[in-house]
Structures are given as C-alpha cells and as structure tokens.
C-alpha cells in the first residue's frame, strides 16, 4: 500500500498555487495591470515556499523510499 502522508501537504499547496497561477495567467492574457499582477504572483510564490516544510517532506520521502527498498529486497529474496 502506498503511503501518501508525505505527499498530501505538498499536493494541497501546489493545487492552491496553481489556482493562483491560473488566475494570474487569465488576467495577464486579458491585458490586466501587469505590475500589480506580477506582484501578486511573486507574493504567491513566496507564500508557497513558506507553506512547504521541505525538511519534513524530504525526511518522510526518504523513509518511504527506505521502506520500499526493504520490501523489494524482501520480495526479491523470497523467490530464491
């Protein structure tokens, strides 16, 4: 079974960011106020960076990979 806990916060943050990016792009192509739009987009990028706990995500991902490696080793050795 795939352990998803390390993915959930990242996915939710990215979904929120994509919504903001989509809104930015629609405004940009509609000829909106570029200066204000760019400032809003940069602010969203900074907020996204602050929302994501990179260290925690990396640790959880490494743990997940180690577990998968151990399981794969177990299943590989079971065939012999």
Give the topology:
Layout: H1 8-29, H2 34-51, H3 54-78
Helix pairs in contact: 1-2
Account of the protein in words:
The chain is built from 3 helices and no strands. It starts with 7 loop residues before the first helix and ends with a helix. It is mainly α. The chain has helices at residues 8-29, 34-51, 54-78. Helix content is 81%, strand content 0%. The protein has one domain (8-78).
Notable characteristics:
single chain; mainly alpha
Write a short abstract of this structure.
This protein is mostly helical. It is built from three helices and no strands.
For the sheet with most strands, the description reads: none
Q: How many structural domains does the protein architecture include?
A: 1
Number of strands: 0
Class by alpha and beta content = mainly alpha
So what's the oligomer here? single chain
What is the helical fraction, as a range of percent?
over 70%
Alpha plus pi helix count: 3
Q: How much of the polypeptide forms β-strand, as a percent range?
A: under 5%
Radius of gyration: 20 Å
The end-to-end span amounts to 24 Å
